[in-house]
Amino acid sequence: MRLRTHGKALAGPVVVLLVLAAACGVTVATMPAELEPWGWYGLAALTGLAALAWVVVPFLRWRSTTYTVTTHRLVTRSGILARRGHDVPLDRVVDVRYERSLSDRLLGCGTLLLQTASEATPVVLPDVPDVRQVHQLVSELVFGVQDAPQGAVVEEERR
């Protein structure tokens, strides 16, 4: 299973992009004629820099962050120019938990926490889409088949 963080990470950049577009439009409409065309050039440069910093970089950060669950390990990769990765062997995992805030429940995501035998702090994977399904999959891979009756699993998948 290969995942990206939930799309809610892009809500802020989308709002910033809309505000930048509106502010740019209002500024162009109210710009005095004696500032043209250099005022437009300056406005375009400022808007471009702001969009780069607050829209493009967060999008690239979201796009380059992946979580991959295989039958033997959990692989995390992130980074735009410099890549970072972390491989967690599933046979070292001793506890699998997830947390969901109210907004996470509404959006269908959450934070997955994996406690390994060798690390004091858990491996935290924020904004995992369908975190309950991922939690169930990782738990089954780590601890074997769950004791839940098959009907309960089927009912959970239908929701």
Describe this protein's structure.
This protein has five helices and seven strands; from the N terminus they run E-H-H-E-E-E-E-H-E-E-H-H. It has helices spanning 11-30, 38-64, 102-107, 131-143, 150-158; strands spanning 2-4, 66-69, 73-78, 84-89, 93-99, 109-116, 123-129. A four-stranded antiparallel beta sheet has the order 1-2-3-4. The longest helix is centred in the N-terminal third of the chain and has 27 residues, at 38-64. The radius of gyration is 22 Å and the shape is elongated.
Provide keyphrases for this structure.
disordered C terminus; 7 strands; elongated; three-stranded antiparallel β-sheet; single chain; four-stranded antiparallel β-sheet; alpha+beta; 5 helices; 159 residues
Offer a concise description of the structure.
The protein has 159 residues and is an alpha+beta fold.
Reconstruct the topology from this structure.
Elements: E1 2-4, H1 11-30, H2 38-64, E2 66-69, E3 73-78, E4 84-89, E5 93-99, H3 102-107, E6 109-116, E7 123-129, H4 131-143, H5 150-158
Antiparallel strand pairs: 1-2, 2-3, 3-4, 5-6, 6-7
Instruction: Tell me roughly what share of residues is in helical segments.
Output: 40-55%
Report the sheet with the most strands, covering strand number, pairing sense and barrel closure.
Answer: 4 strands, antiparallel
How would you write the strand order of the largest sheet?
Answer: 1-2-3-4
By DSSP (H or I, 4+ residues per run), the number of helices equals: 5
Distance between the termini: 20 Å
Shape: elongated
Overall mean confidence score, pLDDT: 90
